[in-house]
Amino acid sequence: MGKRVALVSRLFFARDYEGAIGEAQNVLQLEPDHLNALFFLGSSYTVSGQYADGVETLERVVELDPDNPFRITMLAWAYARSSQREPALEMLERVDGRGPILKEIAIVHGELGELDRAFGYLDQAFSEDPGLLVELRSDPTADSLRADPRFEELLKRIGFDDR
User: Fold this and answer.
1) pTM, full prediction
2) How many CA atoms lie within 13 A of 83 on its CB side?
3) Number of C-beta neighbours around residue 163 at 10 A
4) Which helix (H) or strand (E) is 58 found in, with range?
């Protein structure tokens, strides 16, 4: 099952959302509560504009793993992406706002249109542990940040200056 879920992840980061959705559904036919398959299914639905399905799937992920701050923050992202500001902020209140989820918190603020706050969290993540940002360049959930010139500047600071 691990190889199939790894394929789902690769398809998601390659922006083949239809492929990721199909592969995640295949995994879920065999193991209906597979957290990572559900996570990438919900994320793929969300980035491809299928907001109701994305939110519902990511809500299921948080229901199955209620204490995981990463999963809670990504549900906040799905709410924000689907223009549900209040539920997004409620989810952010459930996490403490530091450490390994700083990038994800920044992404939620980016979706909410709060770019200064988003880049504040990204700067904090870079200061605390630049390794937290290694997937930033290819992460589809970070698309709301890409148009801001600070995004390219941050990529250069991380060491991705060969775009």
Assistant:
1) 0.92
2) 2
3) 7
4) helix 51-64
**What is the full DSSP assignment across 56-115?**
HHHHHHHHHSTT-HHHHHHHHHHHHHTT-HHHHHHHHHTS-S-GGGHHHHHHHHHHTT-H
12-31 residues labelled b (16+ CB within 10 A) or e (exposed): beeeebebbbebbeebbeee
| Cα atoms found within 13 Å of the Cα of residue 46, Cβ hemisphere only | 29
Q: What is the pLDDT along the chain (163 residues), one digit of tens a residue?
A: 789 899 999 999 999 999 999 999 999 999 999 999 999 999 999 999 999 999 999 999 999 999 999 999 999 999 999 999 999 999 999 997 666 899 999 999 999 999 999 999 999 999 999 988 989 999 999 999 999 999 999 999 998 765 4
Q: Interior CA angle at 3 toward 56 and 134, to 5°? A: 75
Angle, in degrees to the nearest 10, between helices 35-47 and 17-30:
150
- And the tokens for 18? 């239809």
- Could you give the C-alpha distances from 32 to 1, 41, 57, 61, in angstroms and in order? 12, 12, 11, 11
Residue 154 CA to residue 118 CA, distance in Å, equals 12
> Which residues, in sequence order, are CB contacts of 69 under 8 Å at separation 6+?
94, 95, 96, 100, 101
Reading the block at residue 32, the tokens are 């209906």
